[in-house]
Design a protein that fits this description.
heterodimer, A: 113 residues, mainly beta, Immunoglobulin-like, four-stranded antiparallel β-sheet, 11 strands, B: 112 residues, six-stranded mixed β-sheet
Chain lengths: 113, 112
């Protein structure tokens, strides 16, 4: 069974650009979570999708947005990139009744120059 | 504000040592406490603890929760170099609108 897959593995952007990160959950999982892991800050909750709907978002500015597609894959968009957005972005998935991330992907390393 | 605090932040031990990692929490509407191991990329699930005083074990790893004092410990006995990783503690809430609240992690380095 394939795990949570994220693409790309690495992404290098410059300040002011826009980035799109993608996530495919485990088959049968309909909930997707996004976390930011910046150096020294631990995992910070970004977004939570349940069956296509945004269930909640963390304390991040509106330039962080996303969506979940009918096949439950998800996309995270970050606009107007800033240096402080450099981090590992982790996606996780779960069965909808579990309400916490069961399996994590390997993440996308976003570097802002 | 919900908060999870792990200590120590980093730890270096020799192979064969026993280590104890600590996690304390201050949250509203506690549901469960989870431990993850993060080696290079994806955190992998270790334990979920919901009830006080019941030890969970998996090989050389064990964990216990104290809901009165609001903390959990993760023990690793006879450490091996493969145990080197960041260990993350997280709390799941009953509120249903907020998934896991994570601590900053403990970086464990096991040297031969």
């Amino acid at each position: 069974e394939a795990g949570v897959t994220q693409s790309p593995t690495h992404l290098i952007k410059t300040r002011g650009q826009q980035a799109t990160l993608r996530c495919s959950p485990i088959s049968g999982h309909t909930s997707v979570y996004w976390y930011q892991q910046a150096l020294g800050l631990g995992l910070q909750f970004l977004l939570w999708y349940d069956e296509g709907e945004e269930r909640n978002r963390g304390n991040f500015p509106p330039r962080f947005s996303g969506r979940q597609f009918p096949n439950y894959s998800s996309e995270l968009n970050v606009n107007a990139l800033e240096l402080e957005d450099s981090a590992l972005y982790l996606c996780a998935s779960s069965l909808v009744e579990v309400i916490w991330p069961q399996h994590f992907g390997d993440g996308t390393r976003l570097s802002i120059l | 504000e919900d908060k999870v605090v792990q200590s120590p932040l980093s730890l270096v031990v020799h192979e064969g040592d026993t280590v104890t990692l600590n996690c304390s929490y201050e949250v509203t509407n506690f549901r469960s406490l989870l431990w993850y191991k993060q080696e290079k990329k994806a955190p992998t699930f270790l334990f979920m603890l919901t009830s006080s005083g019941i030890e969970k074990k998996s090989g050389r790893l064990s964990s216990i929760l104290d809901k009165k004092e609001l903390f959990s410990i993760l023990n690793i006995t006879a450490t091996q170099t493969g145990d080197s990783a960041v260990y993350l503690c997280a709390v799941a809430l009953n509120s249903g609108n907020t998934p896991l609240v994570f601590g900053k992690g403990t970086r464990l380095s096991v040297i031969a």
